[in-house]
Amino acid sequence: MEGLLAALKAAAEETRLRLLAVLNYGELTVTELTHILGQSQPRVSRHLKLLTDAGLVSRYPEGSWVFYRLSDKGRSAGIVNAVVSMLPGDDLILQRDYDRFLQVQTNRSEKAQDYFSENAGNWETLRNLHIADSKIEAKMLKMLGDKQVNEFVDFGTGSGRMLELFGPRAKKAIGFDLNAEMLALARMRLEAQSLANCQVRLGDVTLLPLESASADLVVMHQLLHFLDDPAAAIAEASRILAPNGLLLVVDFAPHDMESLREQHEHRRLGFSKAEITKIFDDAGIEAHDCVDLVRRGAKSSLSESLTVTIWSGVKSNVSVLNLDKQNRQ
Q1: CATH number of 128-328
Q2: Where does this protein have coiled-coil stretches (predicted)?
């Protein structure tokens, strides 16, 4: 009862109701909210703190920025949804706030597109070296089959393409990346697709702020070759996977294109089936499928093509029991 009263009191103020209304459209920073509401940053920050303390809003630090989002967990989510649903759609102040939100969204989109344009050349070079992305994605969807997904986690989400692909299949989806510019691009794409169940966060994929055994699906798409310790990322995936949860890893088979290290910051030149199988086994993941996708008749500036490999594995019940035992100890 005290929690309910605190939440209702927190919402019962005009500025805070406006904040809830705007955050219903998507997650925003304090600076963006200040522009939308036309109020000072200290005032907006104070109201956000009250909403956060009451559990109606969640805050997510991302470098020097902090993003705010309506709560999507438990009783707080129910209260927020009920309050927002009762806001008058014809209110002039709320309509003005929405118009300014659209301006913020447009500005964010333009910045993300600028970043994409600046880097599109590098990404296109890599795409020309391997089989079409559409064929890779089709194979991944086939591997997922009709599996029910409550929570999907995308390691190294980049531009958010995997969230676009698998997000509609999940009740909740979250992507993590260490590149803030890429996260801005991902947010733009998710908003364009109206994928409100998806979100992105700045985070280290070897140490994620997620509960153990909480995810049904984890995807690592073209991530491992950038990492100093690929095994640590797979171990973290195993930690957050629920029993029988599915792990999909997409990366390159072993190759000798040293230029990818020099021009694209690749730390590893591909992975063998035996190497990934061992990493899976050490992490408590039962290896299932391993599929090589080769671009036939490929022609590139490097006079060869890359083989893309998709590995799938399932979190074993034995590893879950061991984790439970460790937690009790």
Answers
A1: 3.40.50.150
A2: none
